[in-house]
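User: Here's a chain of 297 residues. Predict its fold as tokens.
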Amino acid sequence: MRKTKIRQVYRKTLPVPVRDFLWRFRKYLSYWGKGKYKPEKTLRLEIHLADHCNLNCANCSHFSPVADEYYLDIESYKNDCARISGLGLDRIGGIRLMGGEPLLHPQLIEILKISRQFFNGDNYVEIVTNGILLPKQSAEFWQVCKENRIRVFISKYPIKLDMELIEKTAKQFSVDIILSDKESDWRVKPLDLTGSQNKKRSFILCNEGEKCIQLEEGKLFTCAQTAYIRHFNKYFGTNLEVTEDDYISVYEKHTIDEILRFLSKPKPFCRYCIIGYGGGKFCRPWEMSHKSITEWT
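Assistant: Prediction complete.
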């Protein structure tokens, strides 16, 4: 037990790129050494509250710049939460409420309450935002975050934020604020429109697969690209195919272990992703999107 704790603390002190490399290296050893993929022990979920965004980022992996306006349906989300929590709270690591930009949702406060209602154990609940709308949030928003133990994670972009006001308000309501240490350069995973990539290689090298599980209308996807490719297809008139083998429904009669095993393996959609050894093909500086297909290919 002591060695495990030391190892966990040690990993947390490592830079994010190093942790990503070690995580992918473990996946390599697991597959090439044993001929199988080692599933995660817990399920960590990401949920879009809105597909669109108020920050127009080039090559956004969630395709928000070209997405239609969409808000999470509360009743559907409530049903999904009830089903997933019933699989066993001890196997649910936590959930991240994101997008797009989650603060755009008109029923945000109700969603925060629902999230903690069903994930009421030691699971973390985190809202991931670009921070632009945080200074405009009501006292009720901050109070609900406090009462429901919801932390606020601010993604770091080269934009001006009134962090002094945000931190002051968060401190006033005793809400945890986390500012990401992500660099302004983005690791890009270009899409191969021909779908001719090696899906096993892409999955193993990917810095999102199995770590960024998307819950979308009762279905679990291994990454955002698969879950939201419909926006790319609609805007650019392409046909990158998502099959029934790319996702698993939470309403099918599966145990949590069966779900984790399914998510730990390459999916057919992985053949569309060009992945380099750093988790992406190359890095690009952050910039505003011009909604050109070349941003994603």
